[in-house]
Specification:
Elements: H1 2-46, H2 56-64, H3 66-76, H4 83-98, H5 111-131, H6 138-167, H7 174-181
Helix pairs in contact: 1-6, 2-3, 3-4, 4-5, 5-6
Length: 200
């Protein structure tokens, strides 16, 4: 009899503790849902890219540089529904940014443009990394969006500088002067040491 009473009391305690655990889990789930909603709203508000070219050179290059056009078009499409859609968008943006290194137009295939493309790719990859973490740092994501915008403007201004420089006419004899200043064409500076043995 005493054993039955003990079993009954312990089962009542177990059931009561299970109900408390369920209530705690439900409360924690509600907190997590609210937290994810706040993160989603912050990211949605801060996800604003400069998806229209700011310089004439960047606008004209859209016609000839397919990868640039696709990247700008991808920036223009903003995800709306869930954090998962932002995560998918960041993966697509990373692929499109990586493709910018392919088929760079001849005029823009210079170290200044390539370094700005590399900086842009690094920022887009960081955005992809942060937005795919378990605990998404929404403030860092918003800051990265602003940094990506700065990199975009820097790249477009560099492209504009290159176009402006190409419009400047060269003076007569300037190309010959450049060839003369080219160090790869220079005569090597060889010091004649008459004491070293030579093979003749």
């Amino acid at each position: 009899m005493i054993n039955r009473i003990l079993v009954l009391i312990t089962s009542v305690f177990i059931l009561a503790s299970c109900q408390n655990d369920d209530q705690k889990r439900i409360a924690e789930n509600k907190k997590q849902i609210q937290k994810r909603q706040v993160i989603f709203n912050n990211i949605k508000k801060g996800w604003v890219f400069y998806d229209t070219p700011v310089t004439e050179a960047a606008e004209n290059s859209i016609a000839t540089w397919n990868e640039w056009r696709l990247f700008i078009a991808e920036l223009a499409q903003k995800p709306k529904k869930t954090i998962g859609s932002f995560q998918q968008k960041s993966k697509v943006l990373t692929k499109k940014a990586m493709a910018l290194n392919d088929n760079i137009p001849f005029d823009f295939n210079v170290p200044q443009v390539k370094s700005r493309i590399s900086a842009l790719i690094a920022k887009v990859q960081m955005l992809d990394l942060y937005i795919n973490l378990d605990n998404i740092p929404d403030k860092k994501v918003v800051v990265l969006v602003a940094e990506i915008n700065l990199e975009l403007v820097s790249l477009q201004r560099q492209m504009d500088k290159i176009v402006e420089k190409s419009k400047i006419p060269t003076e007569e004899g300037e190309s010959e002067l450049r060839n003369m200043m080219n160090s790869s064409r220079a005569i090597p500076n060889v010091i004649n040491d008459y004491n070293t043995p030579r093979v003749e």
